[in-house]
Design a protein that fits this description.
globular, alpha/beta, 46% helix, single chain, 4-stranded mixed beta sheet
């Protein structure tokens, strides 16, 4: 989600998680990217790191230290982004021909980054209801399935174990 959503979650849950000995690291509130990477690498398990998908694409961590990636909302471009909204005007079907390919490319980069960091039994959870409720959800789910060894479906999330 957005930085504001992440920061709100951090503020709301930090105290309760600290009481349970869970370390919580948050983009924009826990220092710069290198500091957060070092803190995550050094932290005892369990540790949660809240950050945007765009930031995660650039994260460098040792192999085999991340066991879950949870994507709360599909990382579409913001529709009011000045440059991207102008580029979209060049397409007959801006959503299908421009936004969807950009979403798939971003998901690929996120999963590629996660694959470098993942433990052997790592899981990806996509919690966005649009996978089930929107017409394009089936297309996105099908795209994600090609990267999964197995998929567990429930009403709240799609869980995928990476190949």
């Amino acid at each position: 989600g957005s930085r504001k959503t992440i920061e709100d979650a951090f503020v709301r849950h930090t105290e309760a998680l600290e009481e349970k000995n869970v370390t919580l690291i948050c983009q924009n509130l826990s220092g710069g990217q290198e500091r957060m990477q070092a803190e995550f690498t050094a932290a005892e398990s369990p540790t949660l790191w809240l950050l945007t998908p765009w930031t995660y694409e650039g994260v460098e961590l040792p192999a085999g230290i991340v066991d879950n990636l949870i994507i709360f909302s599909l990382p579409f471009d913001h529709p009011n982004h000045a440059v991207l909204s102008r580029r979209a005007l060049h397409y007959r079907d801006a959503f299908g021909e421009y936004s969807m390919p950009r979403l798939k490319a971003r998901l690929f980069r996120i999963l590629r980054t996660f694959a470098r960091h993942a433990t052997g039994d790592a899981r990806v959870q996509v919690c966005d209801d649009r996978l089930r409720t929107k017409k394009y959800g089936k297309e996105v789910r099908s795209y994600l399935e090609q990267f999964a060894a197995n998929i567990e479906t429930d009403t709240a999330t799609e869980q995928m174990k990476l190949l």
